[in-house]
Amino acid sequence: MPPGSAKTIELLRIGNPWLVGQHVNRVVPVFAAHNVIAPDFSRSRSLQSIKDLAFDAGLAIRESLGPCLQVHTEDYRDLQETTFGLLAPERRIFQDHRKGGASEQGSLFPLVGGLTAPAASDDGLGKRLRELLLRHRSDWQRKLLELMAPSVVRDPATAFAARLLGGTSGESNPEEMPRRSLVLRGIDKACAEFVDNLLDLEPCDSRVPAIRRFAMGAYFVGVLRMVAGVVTDVGEELPQVFVYCGLPPGVGNDPLVRAASKSFNRWIAASHSATARQIHARLKETPVLPRTRKAERLRQQVRTLLGERLGEQQLDATMTGLARIVEGKELSEEWARRAIDSRTLGFSKSEYARRVRSLGANIGFAGPDRGRMPRLMLDTPLLGVLAQGIVGRGSLPYEDFVTRLSERFGLVTGIGSDDTIADRVGDLGSEGYDPYEVLQRNQELLRERMVRTGLARTYSDSHTEVFGHA
Amino acid sequence: MAKRTRTADQVPHLYDDLDTFLRLSATNDELMPDSLRDRLHVPTGLEDAVRAAVEAGKAVAITGTAGSGKSHLLRTAVSAAPDYTCIPDLTVEPEADWNKFFNRPKKIIVAGNEGAFLVGQKNGVKGFDKIIASLHAIQAGDDARPGHEIMIIDAAGFDAAGQRVIGTMLGLPVLLDFMNARRGELAATAWRMMESAAVRERVAKLVETASAHADTEGFTFRQLWQCVADMMVGNETDEPWFVRLFNGVNEVSHRIARVFSPSALALPHVGNRMWHADLERLEPLFVPEAVPVLRRLLAAAAREADSEKRLVLFRSLRLLAGFGLQNSPLDSMLRAGTELWSSITRGESRPLLQAINRYFAFGLIDFGDDLELWVQHDTERRHLKPPVQISLGSALASDFTLAKSIAICNPPDGVTAPKGGRRLLRHLQSNAVLHVTKDLADGLVRIRSHRMHDRQDIEYDWRLTAFFEKVATAAARPDRLHVANFDFSARTGRIMKWQITDRIQKVGG
């Protein structure tokens, strides 16, 4: 079994179940969005035909879409291009060269609820987020249903999708909320509230951009929960990471860029170490059979925990894959650290950083696209998502916005209304800049960008207000 | 040029006051000596509005950021209205008292930054909701806000740079007298150029261009004064103002340096003659007020043996030529930036709508004047933008206006409200507003990049699609779908049109 294979990586998920995907990759916003939305809708029978329409209009029309389309054969290509462009702007549906039409894998842009289905790929980010939302006490589910199944169709994109679905936006089938559940706290609460705010629409808001913001925002908090959440799970403070706020990606010799890169590496290291500690803690509390030999105990504990997630056959294969790092070993924190660094798991700090950068780059949250000094950043569309997710309805003084970002998610963009942040975030200074200056300059860069893009307004020298629905 | 005053010569301490004032880090009204107040006064039209409001017995609210001229206006009002209650700074008044200010018609003038009024509105202070609503309306270019008796002045919105206020400042006689009396020969001789209206106009235009370039609120009076002060006394050496204008440590100079590079100034023949100190042929080309400083600089350059120092002098000469030539290439450089920006400054919306259409189609498809409302719905950042683009509808060109923001709301009869500095494309049905800046206009002309790593374009895309999104709330039609398809490598594009009723059918493309 190759290092870091799908099965051995299950050991990591004992410590951090948010490390999803085959190798913590192939995780993209549209899949995550589907996994959040789909449980509230019945799967449409036309869904596969609509996917087919993007590759083979003739096939889709013959199979089931004939009644809703009046298109000449010579226009089939245009119809395919239109469908692909409208319903798969991320190019996340794929042609099935063997059978013709589209593969069953892949997801359409969730224009309406009827186009959604649980993503069949190994992306579990949306599933984790959905579990979290189910514990969030608010009317988010009603708002999600209203967004995904509008009672009135106002735009042609929605009309096109609804027509393909036979004149409906989809059949809603809301999942029942658990009657009792643990109250969300900390970053879990922040993530749920963020997504909740993205579902908060004015009656006249355009729904297509709103769905885009929702998909990007759900993915954004998913990635944050993946990296930072595990640190709070082991009882530590939410890790603070400095985010470069100039126009991305910035240049390598900028002290802000250097600070962001150093901070990103520390953030990843904190998450990596917390994952090892959490693996150790969870295995330690797992009971073993009486009179189990010392050399057998660890294998038994691992098998028990993995057994909660995997079927028998998969479990056997996984235990075989993990044999080198489990057999005859004794449980300790050091063992957990070595295990995740080992070739068997292939999840060193640098590998983790590479994967998080790649996940973040999907929404302009990390970069640069290639090259040295990975760092967190905020691309302009993501800024719009952040403003709505953090502020919700109404507005918020800019300093409070900056502070909320760091308090809720550990994203440090400036000093905000908390002077102590410069000490808490670690050594940011370099090349003659002290941490305070770095934070001040970064905060000002973000403020300028937000004002320029209409997300914030300056009211006086000392008062800028950020708007949730700019 | 205003009439020269000799009072300054008779009162030498005036120069000390002026020197102190110019060297203050915050050149604000409160710190301006009374001896200077009249001499440094620059009329803007806002004072007339305040006087008229006072005569009509209206309550007045003056809002604006620090340095926008609130205190100066208030002082004007106080002298005109002894029976008025004046609140010079809302923020220093106890918040409990704010409710008394505008709860019924009374003779009161309140000045404060907009943030303070916003806090009052959030806390439910009587009358503040109307003030904020009116203020936001005039900032969006909408002056139709009747229904209350308070005149509101948006001092921050007054376009000091666009109204070329700095030109008037530079022409103040007291400044010339001060330079003659207190500064070195070269700096004083250079300042005499300010007696030329053409030179002052060029400086003012340059400042206006820098002000319009990015999405900020233009320049405040304080920032303009700081620039003037820097040009006069910013450097202890005998540096001429035209060098200091670019090298100064002030916001105006920083922004000028960002939008204009002196090395881009093309001086065919003139540059050559300056290098060879050919004064005889150069003199007739310059405005008379610039000739004395030209002589001095040419003589210094000719004397200078050190080649590096000579180059420095030559760079100063180039800048002098930019402002001092009768026909300066600076004029055409400031006009440039494109025909589009010129048409925007004339208030023509159609060229702008065409440019937005062209920009969003990557320059590959020509649309008419009606604005296509493109939507971006890709959730994943790839290396290239999606080659297929969806329009939510199109909005008629006749439904848009291109206007400037307004500096006064609810002025008394007979007073024309001065314009603000923001240029706004407004869709009448949806009330959506796009703030049009010069950098956006330049971006539109450059045409959109299809590569995601051109982050500046991502920002323009975002600004425009946020506007489209709002326009679409009134203009989207569910029965008509326009889809653009681009081939970025072949540089072609085409449009497909679909009709959506009980069936989907192709109707064009």
Plain-language structure description:
The complex is a heterodimer of chains A (470) and B (509). Chain A is built from 19 helices and ten strands. Chain A is mostly helical and 470 residues long. In chain A, the strands form four sheets. A three-stranded antiparallel sheet of chain A has the order 7-10-9. In chain A, strands 2-3 form a two-stranded antiparallel ribbon. A two-stranded parallel sheet of chain A has the order 4-8. Chain A is globular. The mean pLDDT of chain A is 92. In chain B, the strands form three sheets. In chain B, strands 2-3-1-4-8 form a five-stranded mixed sheet, with helices on both faces. In chain B, strands 5-6-11-12-13 form a five-stranded antiparallel sheet. Chain B has a three-stranded antiparallel sheet with strand order 7-9-10. By secondary structure, chain B is α+β, with helices and mostly antiparallel strands. In chain B, strand 9 (419-427) and strand 10 form a beta hairpin. In chain B, helix 14 (241-247) crosses helix 15, helix 18 runs antiparallel to helix 19 and helix 22 crosses helix 23. The longest helix of chain B is centred in the C-terminal third of the chain and has 21 residues, at 455-475. Chains A and B meet through helix 2, strand 1, helix 5, helix 8 and helix 10 of A and helix 7, strand 6, helix 24, strand 11 and strand 12 of B.
List keywords for this structure.
heterodimer; A: 470 residues; mainly alpha; three-stranded antiparallel sheet; two-stranded antiparallel ribbon; 19 helices; 10 strands; 51% helix; globular; B: 509 residues; alpha+beta; five-stranded mixed sheet; five-stranded antiparallel sheet; 13 strands; 46% helix; 15% strand
